[in-house]
Each structure stands twice: as structure tokens, then as C-alpha cells.
């Protein structure tokens, strides 16, 4: 399954411009707002999961963040980011991996995931994601997870997804996390359709 995911996303990022995909955002909201609410400071260690060609890393650099890791399953997506950032790319740690198989070598203050988790439709993959997240996040750290809302689309990029709310994500993460914030977001695609997202922020106990 991991190989199938890799092939799919490499094809997407090799054949489509960044603004030719439904999830494109010129300004990465509500992610920036939620990072602020989670108490992110410029020296906070942040990992952006399934970043694709997201402009969040650009915004974080622009705001003076100095400890940012970007993870994606697609090498082509990461290369697009590097090219866009130019010399600034050297300030970022880049990880090409399927998040379910990632073995983080350090811990982070904030785990950010906009629209990667909902592609994990298999219970074993969801459990693996939760295990990696728990290992990667410091006690007291925050996990910001955005997915299609229960009334949102049932597919994205031709793939089935699992729609979530704060309760369903909280059950997967377990008792080691407490809900800090949940909110809806109406994402406008490049062709002006609207997709309903939910963003939930969880704090790791301890």
C-alpha cells in the first residue's frame, strides 16, 4: 500500500502545477492561526506532515521560525518546495517518507498535518500514524490535524478518504491527548468550489 501511495503522489507532483490541485492555498490559513493559538514561537520545533507543495514553510520562514521539518511521501513535491524557496531551503530539514513508516530521530513541539491523515483509510495505517505522532511529539506539545469534515468530500485526488471530526481523531490518538481546539474551515479551491474541512488541535498530556 505504501508503494501505491508513493507512486500516486509522485505522479501528481510530477505532472501538475501547484495551483492545479484542489488543495492549493496561496495563504496557509487556518494553519497559521492555529499555530499561533498553540503557542508557537520562532524557536519552536515544528514538523509539517504531508506538506506537498504547501506554502506554509514559506510563511514560517518569513515569520522567523528556525526549526522547521517538512515531510512528504513525494520527492517531487519536496523538490518543488526547494526550488520555490531557493537558498532559503537550506534552513529547512527535508524528510521524504510515508508518515506511517517514518522513524523520527527527535521530538517536536508542534505536529501539523493539513489533509494527509484523511487519506489513511486502513485501520492499521491510522494506528501507525498515531504511534508515530505520539513518538514524535514532546509532552505538552500540540498536534494540529486538518481533514475533510463529516459533510466534506468523500474523495480527493481520485482517492477515497475518511472524513473526520474531533471525536474520531481523538479516539485514534487515545487518552494521552486532550482536545484543545476544533473548528470548521471552508476551503475555496482554485476553481472556486468550496470544500468543508475540520481542524482539531490536541495537546499531548505529560
Automatic annotation (TrEMBL):
GO molecular function, one term: methyltransferase activity
GO BP annotations, alphabetical order: methylation
Pfam families in alphabetical order: Methyltransf_25 (PF13649)
Keywords assigned: Methyltransferase, Transferase
Methyltransferase domain span: 46-141
Gene3D superfamilies, per database record: Vaccinia Virus protein VP39 (3.40.50.150)
The organism's place on the tree of life at top rank: Bacteria
Record-linked InterPro entries: Methyltransf_25, SAM-dependent_MTases_sf
PANTHER family: EEF1A LYSINE METHYLTRANSFERASE 2, PROTEIN-LYSINE N-METHYLTRANSFERASE METTL10
The protein's name: Trans-aconitate methyltransferase
Organism annotation: Aminobacter carboxidus
Upper taxonomic lineage: Bacteria, Pseudomonadati, Pseudomonadota, Alphaproteobacteria, Hyphomicrobiales
